[in-house]
TrEMBL record, chain B:
This is Phosphonate ABC transporter permease. The chain crosses the membrane at residues 12-34, 40-59, 71-92, 209-227, 233-252. PROSITE patterns: ABC_TM1. Belongs to the binding-protein-dependent transport system permease family. It comes from the Bacteria. The lineage of its organism: Bacteria, Bacillati, Bacillota, Bacilli, Bacillales. It is a multi-pass membrane protein. Keywords: Cell membrane, Membrane, Transmembrane, Transmembrane helix, Transport. It is found in: Cell membrane.
Amino acid sequence: MATITLERTEQQADIFSRPQSKVAETVLQLTDVAKTYDKQTMILRNIDVALHKGEFVSIIGKSGAGKSTLLRCVNRMIEPTSGEIVFDGQNITHLKKKELRKQRAKIGMIFQHYNLVSRLTVFENVLHGRFGYKSTLQGVLGLYTEEEKQLALTILEKLGMQEHIYKRCDQLSGGQKQRVGIARALVQEPTLLLCDEPIASLDPNASKIIMDHLKEISQSMGITVLVNLHQVDVAMKYSDRIIGLSHGTKVFDDVPSRLSQFAIRDIYGTDVDELITE
Amino acid sequence: MTGTQFLRKKKWTMTIVFIILIALTYGSAALTQFNLIDGLASIPATIAWMFSNLIPTAASFENLPKVLGRLWETIILAIVASTTAAICALLFAMLGAQTTQVNRFFGVTARFIASVFRNIPVVAWALILVISFGHHILTGYFALFFSTFGFLVRMFIETIDEASSDGVEALTASGATYFQMVVKGVLPDTLPQMLSWVFYMIETNIRSATLVGILTGTGIGYLFDLYYKNLDYAMLGLITILIIVIVFFIEFTSNSVRRAIS
C-alpha cells in the first residue's frame, strides 16, 4: 500500500505539472449550503463551491465569518442546515453513520491545535489515520498491517520526522506536531485534505515549512487541499484559488491575482464599516 | 467611578466580610457556650491522658495477629470496593462526559444517577444497607462501592472533558468508530489521571472502611468498637497506630505509583 501511494505521486506529479486543465475532475461540490443554529443568524448561506483534483484552495475571512463552520460542513463534523455535499461523485449530505465513516476516511483533516493524542507516540498518532478503514476491534486492539506501518514510516520520513517517530507527542514543538497531524491525514490516503487554520499557532519559520508541505501534497500527490487561513499574503502566495467569506456568504472566488484591494475590503470590511454594521 | 473609588470599595467589601465572619464565630461560640480558651487549656491534659492510656501494652501485642487479620480484611475490602466502583464509574463517565457522550439523554441520566450516589454520605449508605444486608462484609462493600462510584464518575467526567476533546474531533473526522475513538483517543490521555483518582479513593476508603466497620460490625472497625466498649484503651491505641501506619504506607505507595505513570 505504501509503495503504491508514493509511486503514484510521481506519476501524478507529471500530470499536475501541466497547466491546470478545465476538465479536471471535481472532487467536492457544495451546492447552496447553509448553516444556522437558531434559525435567525445564518452562520453560512448560499455557499456554492467546487473543488477540483489536486487544487490548492484557501478560504479567507474575518474571525466569525464562518470559515471553520464551512470546513466542518464538508465532512459533516457540523451538519449543514440545508444544501448538498457531493464528495468524490457521491452525495454524502444524508449518508448514515456507517457510509459517512467510509467517506470520512477519504477526507484528511488537520487542525490549528494539531489535535493529537498527546501521551501517545508520533508513530501511534499517525497510525490512527487508518481507523476509518478498520473494524472497531482491529482499531481498538491496534492491529495494523505491515503495509500500513510502512506507509506511516515513509510519510513521516517525507515530512522530515524520521528522528521523532518514537517520541511522545507532548515532547514535540508546534511545527513538529503539525507535521504529525499532516502525516496522520496522509496515512488515510485521502482524496481531499481539510486544513483548519494550520499555521495560526506557529511561528513564521514553522508556518513556511507546513505551507510548503501542504503545497507539495497538492501538487505531487494530486490531493485537493482546502485551507482556512488568516493571513492574506500566505493565501496569495500558495493558493491556486481563493475563496473569500464575509458574514457567512461567499464574496470572492477566483485566482489570487484577481484579489484586488477592493475584494479584500469586501471580505474584511473597513474599520468604519465594522462600526456601522455591528 | 475612578480607580481610587473602585479600590476603596473593594477594601470595604473585604473588611465587612471579615467582620461578619468574626461576629458569626463569636455568636455561635456564645450560643453553644463554647469557650476557646478552656478548649485550648484542656489539650495538654488530653495529650497526657492519651500517652498514659493509649500506649499498647505487652498484653495487647498478644492480640496482634487477630488485629492484623481484621486490618487485612479492611484493606482488601477498600481495594475491591474502589476498583470495582472505578470500572462501573468509567462506563458512566463515558456516557456522561460532554466529549464522549452518546446522546444527551444518556448523558444527563448518567450524571444524575452518579450525583444521587455521590450526595448520600458513606455513613448513611452503611446505615441504610445494614438494614437490608445485616452485619455482613457485603454491607461495608456496597456502602464503599456506592459512594466511591458517585465520586469517581464525577472526577472521571471532569478528567475526560479537560483532556481530550481535541483528539476526539480528529479521530471522528478521520472516520474512527466510537469505540476506536474512546480507546485510542480518550483513554491514553486520561487513564493516568483516572488511576490517580482510583488510588486516592483506595486511600480514602481504607479510612472510611474503619468507620463503616464500626457501623456494620465488620473489619477493623468492629474490633475498634469492641475494645472501645470494653474500655481496653491499650488495644485501641494499638489499632489506631496500625491504621495510621497502613494509611501512611498506602499513601506513600500511591504517590510513587502516580508519579511513575504520569
